[in-house]
Amino acid sequence: MGDGMAGAAGFWILSGLSGAGKATALAALERRGARCTDNLPAELVARLSGGAAPVVAVVDARQGEALRGFVPPPGVRVLFLDARDEVLVRRLADSTRPHPCGGAGIGPAAIAAERRLLEGMRAAADVVVDTSALTPDELGQRVGDAVLPAGAAAAELVLTVSSFGFKYGPQLEADWVVDARMLRNPFWDPELRPLTGQHPAVRAHVLDQPPGAEFVDRLAELLRWTVDGMAQRRRTRLHVAVGCTGGRHRSVVVACELAGRLRGEGVAVILHHRDVERPDPR
Prior knowledge:
33% of the residues lie in helices and 18% in strands. By secondary structure, the chain is an alpha/beta fold. The longest helix is centred in the C-terminal third of the chain and has 23 residues, at 210-232.
């Protein structure tokens, strides 16, 4: 691999399931200034080099058996797009393109075969984005933040902190999942229920008590230690997802607090909330 691979902006593989939004993501990255190519043969990955702008190449199941054991070269990061099976089935029903694993069957059978083929790529991913509930604009923002984070150097560790609701399914993207359901729940206060964890009153309800404050203190301390260790080993991405029951109150408070503290200490942080905009459950 040439020295340019670890250049100023770096080199990324964009991979993922058919129907997860790779074309949308690639177009969004190109608009943000990345140098992009689609369907790059896996054997050519090691020959490309980075430069002032990041290089992004789609390497996916269209490569067939060439991907079965493929390991990204050192210095190459992987952005993997995933989605729930039922979402992929629905999206693929509207597609006129043949599925790359269509020989295994249609619908769920093809998706299962593709997941098996991409197991190694998924395991190697630096960043995973679950596109199940994202609009095209939201997907573009998420992949742009991953590859071109504002204010962060290419070699700098970027910490993603997110919130989600367990009742709406697991957070597929996370490296770590933190369960905040032990904390006092604002949902049971009629005045706080329609609000979210971004409101000061909800924040006070969660944190102005010993368990809430200590919970955040301990998490922040662990994250500081982890971020330092990962930076020393030149790891550049970590996603910590905080969950509560509905993803509107406790998890949002904790995620916001963690992001604010780490940002204040100079860590590059991306913050997003998966379920905070879901309808008021009253």
